[in-house]
Amino acid sequence: MSFDAQYFDIGRLDRLSYRDTFVHQLDARVKVIATMLFLFTVISFPKYEVVALVPFFLFPVLLLTIGEIPVRFILKKVLLVSPFAILIGVFNPFLDTATMAVISGIPISAGVISFLSILLKFALTVSAALLLIATTSFPGVCHALRRLGLPSLFVSQLLFLYRYIFVLMEEAMRITRARDMRSFGSRGAGIQVFVRLIGTLFVRTVDRAERIYYAMLSRGFQGDIPSLRRARIVVTDLACLTAMVMFLAVFRFFRITEGIGCLVQGLLR
Amino acid sequence: MHMADALLSPAVGTTLWAGTAAVGGYASKKLKIQIDDKMIPLMGVIGAFIFAAQMINFTIPGTGSSGHLGGGMILAIILGPHAAFLVMASVLTVQALFFADGGLLALGCNIWNLGFYPCYLIYPFICKPLIGDGKNPGRILLASVVSVVLALQLGAFSVVMETVLSGKSELPFGAFVVMMQPIHLAIGIVEGFVTAGLINFVRSARPELLECMAASRPLGASISLRKVMATFVVLAVISGGALSWFASTHPDGLEWSIEKVTGKGELQEAEQGIARVLKGIQKKTAFLPGYGFKPAGNESRKEEAAPAWPGIEAGTSTAGIIGAAIVLGLILLIGVGIRSFRGRNG
Amino acid sequence: MSHHIIEFRDVFFRYPDGTEALKGVHFRITHGESVGIVGANGSGKSTLLQHMNGYLLPTSGTVTIGDLNLTRKTRQEIRKKVGIVFQNPDDQLFMPTVFDDVAFGPVNLGLDDASVRERVYRALGMVNGLALRDKPPHHLSAGQKSAVAIASVMAMEPDILAMDEPAATLDPKSRRLLITLLKGFTHSKIIASHDLDLILDVCERCIVIGDGRVVADGPAAEILSNRTMLEDNSLELPLSFQRRSSG
Prior knowledge:
heterotrimer; B: mainly alpha; Arp2/3 complex 21 kDa subunit ARPC3; 3 domains; two-stranded antiparallel ribbon; 1% strand; globular; C: alpha/beta; Rossmann fold; six-stranded mixed sheet; four-stranded antiparallel sheet; 11 helices
């Protein structure tokens, strides 16, 4: 993916995270915990589970719609990162060929089912992760992580990283463009040039760190990064979390989807 | 090379997260003592640098394909192991959140694979001794290439182990290894050259940077072999515990996953195409004797279908498919409904 | 009111690599003055500014801010009195949101939450930036960043405001807004800049630095119309004067 595209993509996702919908306003800690529980539940399903995974799509759908996140945007990103999982999973149908199920007379191999399971789990987990950041600003996630117990040293530098990613990417973009403009035809980017580019970027980065440090000192910095944020968990947050946990428990341990199917089958007979 | 959640099992994911969290806590504590006020913004900005540098690609001589910088090793050399581990962890966190590059549960694995090995294993025991006083470009090159290659090999091998132990993929262990290791060997060599190149560049452009950084962190002294060993013991206990818990929830669990590893299942059918090739490779590369990597016998289908989690019956039936279709329809209806509700009121 | 005086007495400064940046700088700025500092690149302007809040300490000579002589021990205290706004707002806005950035100073001063909040709102109000408070700095335009950088310094309520090339990245409209803003401040103002027209607009007094020394020091209108002297120091007349004196 070209550098420009990657840059604007992360920019877009970042901008989405500062919006102001019901989902965005939920406490960040609740969202982080809910997402992790969701992920854990999804991957706890056994290898050949396909049908019981379907109801779990409700979670991303709700986040997308209530959070007003463009569907195609998320879909594109999910597709973009699928190659690795597909690459590994695609061997399953070839290696696991015993028949596992028969649907309307057509035998389906176990490998196909486990591959399908991987694909579904992939779609669910990746979209959940993306939607977490789409509905919670990165600083919000960081502060949540800190209140949930991560070392504050780590979180502080994570916030700095976030703050300067865009600045550095822009610098890198400028440097790369300068290189590309002067490399006619050949991609022009041999290792030697690359090393000089990132070397220059690195030196500039360290100089920048020096200036930032100076700016911090000038405003009284004495070693501790202050953090004023004091978000509180309210009833709405807890209600959503409870609903979530109940949903996860029910749909993990009871075969609701199949139940519905059986019901309908019975009715149709 | 980043693990995805979909291929991970809860047991493996939790174990690796525990390990990563432990190392992260250790690194934070050590850093807090040694830290110089300037470090936090420096670490953050260098993390952003790694990110930006990872996005610039370059052509690999002779192949025409493009490559990227990984970063673990160069971070360790510049910042020392503790800071480097934390920076690598943050870079991977941002990648997981913003680019879905590696899952959130798999983040523990990825930080371990790409952070622990370069910072705490390779750097102190191989890279630093080889680099010596950092003045000889030849030694720097050797140290960089060897270190990066080893670190990536360990990382790639871990991905294989994590995937195989999770049991969601059918890829036989041997074949997987044959796929991963050579690719990462090539990547490692290139990245090693890049790492050395960067160090030499900085040394000639701004020598005081390297010295300054290296000097303020007495690295050799701060990594005591005893502590490393102790960490290993703790990790071994955790992983041993987790694996046996996994095994106990599913009586034949471990054996079952080993069977998966040997690519069984096609004994009843004629071995076709890919399966045969892979099985062939696997037979030739089977090299861990006592572990039981041997062609499995005839196990019945029923065992494979048995769940690894309390009381669930796996399997797809027609009823299941009907139910799935209905549920999917319902979900879509809800989605569209909310959308248009928003549209009207928005 | 002695606490608003800045005095440089025979200040020399040599960088670790041997460069002599200041060679006997000598001047006195009193309460409420607005002073422009001009000079060619490399003349020592930035070095001079960096002495004002103790980032650099003179190799010899004394720097006095208010009642305090600048030493390693007094610099923390001095930083509460002198607020410096840098050339590149990206270096100065390093927190995740605008609010956090403007609050950074007050929190480091040890104020309680309520006071911090009050200071932030007041400072942002001064620069018309209240609406930006929850935004991350990288979502702001150059003009907005500049404004927020100023607010982040003003929130510390310094006695003296120093600025290094404040209008360098601004478009004409933002620049005009900045000038209006600065004219409204009653603090002692020290502005180092190449933008001679801005200095003419905002400052009553002007100090010309050349080769590490004070070359001229007097009312801005006078100094900045002295063509020969300016050109001798690799400068030229402000653009608004150039149109007047044709040829």
